[in-house]
Amino acid sequence: MKIGILSRNRKLYSTRRLMEAAQARGHDVRVVDVLKCFMNITANDPKVFYQNKENNAEELEFDAVIPRIGASVTNYGCAVLRQFEVDQVYSINESIAIARSRDKLRAHQLLARKGIGQPITSYASSAKATNSIIESVGGAPLIVKLTQSTQGNGVLLAETKKAAEALINAFRGIGTDFLVQEFIKEAGGSDIRCFVVGEKVITAMQRKAAKGEYRSNLHRGGTAEVTKLSAAERRLAVNAAHVMGLDLAGVDILRSAHGPLVIEVNSSPGLEGIENASGIDVAGKIIEYIENDWKSGPNKPKGKG
């Protein structure tokens, strides 16, 4: 197969591992920076071109693509991916599913519609609703997070009502959309990253926040170790990925007093932490899944919304 990895940096661990795994299985692999792509949008002959090192336009032809689209280039990256989809190129995650997962408000609404457990989450536009929105999630401490955020950026803990009011008013003052969310104290600064490929969780790790930090992201100093999931946690992770329409996802859940809760569904989960913690060749399993799923033909949009 000819496989294209849509990534801005071929040296990133995840990009490099996917390339190595695909090559090890005999595939022709190429890493493509989406910002160097441009599109010929026609009904009869849709194409994606790449501006190569010689500054020449080169048509890209792949059997399958693996999107590793960074949050900062979501819109253009999804536009490029859509053009491949128009040309009937297989993608393990489709553009519409990536867009769903990147919009936190939309993602929470879709999960709620399908009965997926998650922390109580509120959203309001009016400044007059500040007290009501704080009370709706059980009061402080609470989490305030941007609707467009990734890797823990734009996620803030307000430990008191006064701090919560200040954060909410500050975000409103700069015209930024945000969510207010219940703080799950019993999680103890840890969460579970479930790595979903297709119909199953292939491995999972528990991430623990560094001392003095409430976010468990590994790049913020958190630690990780492989963990065993309950049957309910596995079902929750797979169902959450399917609601988003993702065949490849990192589903983050919290263990709360009233059961497991989804806090995020990531469409481009990193491989370094999960491979190091589990010892599993996650990249190889992704390529193996693509080999089998690709035979059924180009993806059709999954999920709704």
CATH architecture of the largest domain: 2-Layer Sandwich
Count of spatially separate domains: 3
**Named CATH topology of the largest domain:** D-amino Acid Aminotransferase, Chain A, domain 1
Radius of gyration: 20 Å
Using the alpha-carbon principal axes, give the shape: globular
Q: Kindly state the mean pLDDT as a whole number?
A: 90
Helices and strands, in order, run as EHEEEEEHEHHEHEEHEEEEHEEHH
* Total helical segments: 9
Structural classification: alpha+beta
Please give the CATH class of the largest domain. Answer: Alpha Beta
Total E-strand runs? 16
Beta fraction of the residues?
25-35%
Largest sheet: 5 strands, antiparallel
Adjacency order of strands in the biggest sheet: 14-13-12-15-16
Low-confidence segments, ≥5 residues, pLDDT <50?
A: none
Q: In CATH, what is the homologous superfamily of the largest domain?
A: ATP-grasp fold, B domain
Gap between N and C termini: 32 Å
Q: In which range does the helix fraction lie?
A: 25-40%
What is the compact description of this entry?
32% of the residues lie in helices and 27% in strands. With 305 residues, it is of the alpha+beta class.
